[in-house]
Amino acid sequence: MVKAIDIIIFVKKDLARKETYRLRYTNKLIQSGEAPVKQERKERIPIDPAIQQPYVDGRIILINKPLHWTSFDVVRKLRSLIQIKKIGHAGTLDPLATGLLIICTGKFTKKINEYMAQEKEYVGSITLGAVTPTYDLESEPEQPKDFSFVTIDMLQEKIEKFIGDIDQLPPIFSAIKKNGVALYELARRGETVELKPRSIHIKSFEITQIGLPVIYFKVVCSTGTYIRSLAHDYGAALGCGGYLSSLCRTSIGDFKNDAALSMEDFEKSIAN
What is the largest CA-CA distance in the chain? Predict the structure, then answer.
C-alpha cells in the first residue's frame, strides 16, 4: 500500500504522455510503413431537425470507444454528427483503452459528475517482467526482469493487498490538474511534479486467465482509480514489474458496455 507521503518526480521531456496522442500514433504508423490513408473531407450535410432536437434537449449516448481514439475524439465526432455544442463525456478513457463511454447532451450534461462518481468495472491484461514510464503501452517497456518465479499462489496472494480502501499514486502522465494545469503538461515541460496518494476503493480484483507473462483480470472499483497504476503497483508487489497491456471498461453504475453503440452504428442511427 502506498504511504501517504508526497513524492517528487522529475520527468524528462521525451517521456511526455500527451504531446497529442493522434500525432504520435500517426508517426508510429508512418515509421512502420503503414502510413494512414488521409480521408477526403466530406461536405457536412445539415442534420434533420427532428433527429437533432432530442439531443439538443438532452440525451445519454452509450458509446463503445474505439481503440486509439481519445475520449475527446469521440465527443468531437459526435458534436459534428449531431451538430450541437452542448455535449460532454462522463469519465475519460485512455487512447489504448476501449469500452463504455457515457456521452451526455443538452440538459443531461448537468449529470456528468453524477455518472462519473459511480462504480466502474474493467477487464484487461497486465504484462509482467518489465515496466513502462506511462504504466501502459503508450511508452516502450524497459527494465526487463525475470518473472519465471511467479506462481499462481503468489498471484492470488499479492492481489489481496489491493482490495478494499487503499492509497494509490496516480500516474505522472495523467490529466490530474495542479494549479489548473494537467500533470502531463507539466511533464512535457520537464518540470518537477509533486504526486500525492489518493484514497480509492477496490471492491474486487480477480485474475480471470493466466498465460505468463500476461495475466488477465477483472476489477470493480471506485471513481478516481487508475488501472494503469494498479497494474504497475501489482507488478512491483510481485517483484518483477508489470504494465497495463490492454483495458476495456465494461460498466459504469447500471450502464453496460453491452448496450453501447460503435461509432459506425451511431452514425447509421442518425443518418437521414
Answer: 63
Grouping H, G, I as helix, E, B as strand and the rest as coil, residue 55 is helix
**Residue 138's closest CA among 96, 169, 183, 170?**
96
- Measured between its terminal Cα atoms, the distance across the chain in Å is 54
Q: Are 62 and 260 in contact (CB under 8 A)?
A: yes
What would the pLDDT profile of 190-214 be if each residue is shown by its tens digit?
Answer: 666 667 889 999 999 999 999 999 9
Q: Comparing C-alpha atoms, which of 229, 268, 249 is closest to residue 90?
A: 249
CATH 3.30.2350.10 range(s) for the chain read: 51-117+255-269, 119-174+197-252
119-174+197-252: which CATH topology? Pseudouridine synthase (3.30.2350)
Distance (Å) of CA 247 to CA 4, 55, 149 = 27, 29, 25
Residue that is written with C-alpha cell 497529442 in the block:
20
CA distance 157 to 53: 54
Q: Which residues are catalytic?
A: 94
Report how far residue 1's alpha carbon sits from residue 221's, in angstroms, rounded to the nearest whole number: 16
pLDDT digits over 128-149, tens only? 999 998 899 988 999 999 999 9
Give Cα separations from 26 to 22, 56, 94, 162, 241 (angstroms): 6, 34, 16, 36, 29
- Amino acid at the residue 104: C
51-117+255-269 CATH:
3.30.2350.10
